[in-house]
Amino acid sequence: MTFTLVRKLLRDARVGLLVTALLLAAFQCLWAKITSRILGELSPYFTQLASFGGKSIDDIQKELFEGPGEIVKTLIGGGRVDLERAMDMLSIGYVHPLVQTIFCIWAVGRASGALAGELDRGTMELLLAQPLARSRLILAHFCVDLLVIPALCLSLWAGTCLGTWLVGPIRPEAPTIEPPVGSMSFKLGPIEYKAPLAFRPEPETPAEQAQRLHIDRAAFGPALWAVGGLLFAISGYTMALSAFGRYRWRVLGLAVFVTLVQFQVNVVGQMWDALGPLRPWTIFYYYQPQELILGQPWREALPALAVLYGVGAAGYGVALWVFTRRDLPAPL
Q1: What are phi and psi of 36, to 5 degrees?
Q2: For the chain, what is the radius of gyration of the CA atoms?
Q3: Residue 239: C-alpha distances to residues 110, 115, 319 (Å)
Q4: What's the predicted TM-score (pTM) here?
Q5: Could you give the CA distance from residue 81 to residue 93 in angstroms, rounded to a whole number?
Q6: What is the mean pLDDT of the segment spanning 260-288?
Q7: How many Cβ atoms are within 10 Å of 193's Cβ, its own excluded?
């Protein structure tokens, strides 16, 4: 009976799952193109312009991300991301607010309708009239998460691989602007001399450029554990709220509010010290796929992953405990 219910839940979710997977893959393809455009065309241009004034590209980034620009820097990963490296730029696609919004819409939408949605529609009574224990219903939704969350994670990775393959190797284009030429004047007695002074950017060796623009598609694989952990955590605590509720839209609104508050606290807490101590109480604080992409050792990543999967498991545990003991209202 549980297997039949899982098939029924997967059939109900197939359209939303397909649309979500395509959106995630399409965005990663688009982000690969954006990365190629920035590093291949825009970055060399700004690097040369900065060199004319005796500045480096790091100086330009520092000026760009000061003040209000600090919000943008926080959203793309903070100071640990080097915008001149291809892997760092591609990793932003895994923490982009749009991607996290898609994660939240999928997880909250599916889990909020899992229990409260059945009660709201009046179909829970028909469902439990079958030879099906309440615990089996929770188990069926858990099995669905075990199937669809890896599918969404793989769609994200597939989008990255497809996008980088379509774009091809990143080859910086030489800027067409000519460096300005000035003059330096000095006097030797009564005679004044003028010497030309040209500004030239410091050249980058081919080996340094190849290392900076190298893309390792396999390095994005470990980050899928963080993506799956975030999806499972949101789905878990939304499932717990759904077990308490009766109306889907109330559960949906509460879950969206809780998720939005956590996201804002995590973002603002990186810029405002007063909210900094509250960041570890949000699940987004432990969502760190960029570190895994950029080579963070597993022993350092495991605590954050344990929190994400622990929150999801605790949410399902609460949902099981509440749903198997509560009185279910009769359909109106």
Answers
A1: -65, -40
A2: 26
A3: 9, 8, 6
A4: 0.86
A5: 12
A6: 89
A7: 10
Phi and psi torsions of 35, nearest 5°: -60, -45
CB atoms within 10 A of CB 93: 27
Residue with tokens 């915008």: 83
Helical H runs in the chain? Answer: 2-37, 43-52, 57-64, 69-75, 86-91, 97-112, 116-121, 124-128, 134-167, 206-212, 223-244, 248-269, 289-293, 298-323
CA quadruple 29, 33, 39, 43: dihedral positive or negative? Answer: negative
Cα dihedral 225→229→235→238 (10° resolution): -170
Q: What is the pLDDT of residue 204?
A: 66
Question: Please, what's the largest Cα pairwise distance for the chain?
Answer: 109
Q: What residue ranges do the domains of the chain occupy?
A: 2-174+207-323
Residue 286: alpha-carbon gap to chain centroid: 12
Compute the half-sphere exposure of residue 135: CA atoms within 13 Å on the CB side of its CA: 3
Residue partners of 252: CB distance under 8 A and separation at least 6:
108, 109, 112, 113
**What single letter denotes the amino acid at residue 17?**
L
- Phi/psi region, residue 74 (left: phi>0; alpha: psi -120 to 50; beta: rest), is alpha
Name the token pair of 267. 């973002």
Q: Which residue has the higher pLDDT, 40 or 250?
A: 250
CA distance 141 to 275: 35
Burial of 130 (0-12, 13-18, 19+ CB in 10 A): exposed
From 20-24, 84-88, 195-199, 297-301, the region with the lowest mean pLDDT: 195-199
Task: Write down how long the chain is.
Answer: 332
With 0-12 CB in 10 A as exposed, 13-18 as middle and 19+ as buried, what is 166?
exposed
Contacts of 296 (CB under 8 A, 6+ apart): 288
Tell which residue, 80, 146, 130, 124, has the closest CA to residue 292: 80
Q: CB of 242 within 8 A of CB of 116?
A: yes
